[in-house]
Amino acid sequence: MDKLKGAKAIVQFNTKGILSLAGLAVFAAFFTACGGGPGAGNSTGGVDPNETAAKVNGKVITMQDVDRAVKQQAQGQESKLSPLELAGARLQVLQSLVEAEVMFQKAESEKLIPTEEEITGEVNRQKTESRLSVEEFDKRLKEAGLDEKSYREKIKKDLAIQKLIDKVTARIETPKDKEITDFFNSNPEMFVKRRGVRLAAIVIDPADNGQGDVTRNDAEADQRIKEIMSKVSQPASDFAALAREYSEDPSKLQGGDLGYLSEDELKQNYPQLVAGFMNPQFEVGRITNVVPINGKGYIFKLQERIEKEENLTLDSPDVRPQINKLLVDNRKQLLAASYQAIAMNEAKIENFLAKKVVENPNELSGARPAGASTPANTNTAAANTNSANIASNANSSANDNAKPEEKANENKPAAAPANANKPK
Predict the structure, then answer these.
(1) Greater model confidence, 128 or 393
(2) Which domains does the chain have, with CATH numbers?
């Protein structure tokens, strides 16, 4: 278990500093903000939106760019930030923008800029996956301070940086058989299937969280659930396909797969469901009625039940491929992080915003505006606004290759309330 956590820590550590513009992996996250357009930061700091925040090899990053990203991160609550909190959020966001610009300029020098056709293809893909109408999509763009032109520019940078990382990490070779065997022998606890179940779920969330949800209230959720239940009850229904189409949960990308949950994890998170799922009379492949959990509706499918603990071997299905992917992805992440560190060191970076803070340290009051409540968390603004882990698409293997119950524990929802229905 400790070694597994250590392997995950390596991935997390090595990706913290590898940043690109958000949007390659999860476009929905881009729409979590419900704020205004460019220059919105003026209302919280009296800053000229055209003021230069930083320069990267002469390329200007404006305060408008910074405050747009802060606004997205603070989800419209930036007016409640104190001057001290706002300055901290701006500095974090600016650092991420600088890192992204450095990597984009590297991509330009390597002639890795995507074509207009590639940009259009990615734009169309993201629009389709957002499941928003054209009008709603354009509205969300405007709320985020973007128009079609700036949105395409953002996509261009996303794709260019990803191409750069793909080129840099292409030199990673396939691990040798001995490396795979050594890893397996050194981490036996990672390859144990404990008594438990593997679940999939279709999740319906009646809350309007701004992430392309179709259901935005209880009435719409009820109607949606009826539609789904009528389809999953059909003999030839494809649960994974329906999850990809209907589920309002990140697990939809895996066809609703929540991974393995040990019996102990079931007891901890779904105490009302243990008896049903672990009962041999509850057939594998059976689908439950809707189970209410934390305001959402879950339709579960029992994909597999492990009656007794099983020690996997190197010959067990998927074990070798999982180890191979884990080793390759960890090396890619480390290489990408090292490449970016060198690129940052070579770039000429002028951080005018940081200089301004140093020159005027006593102007940063810690008091929030009158009546302001605790604002949205801005401590991770750099990692969640215009920057994201560039290796997020290709390098998520720590979760994919974790012990089954560990992976499931990360994907599953919070504990069910006491009145949750048992599977039927």
Answers:
(1) 128
(2) 18-171+320-393 (1.10.4030.10), 195-308+402-411 (3.10.50.40)
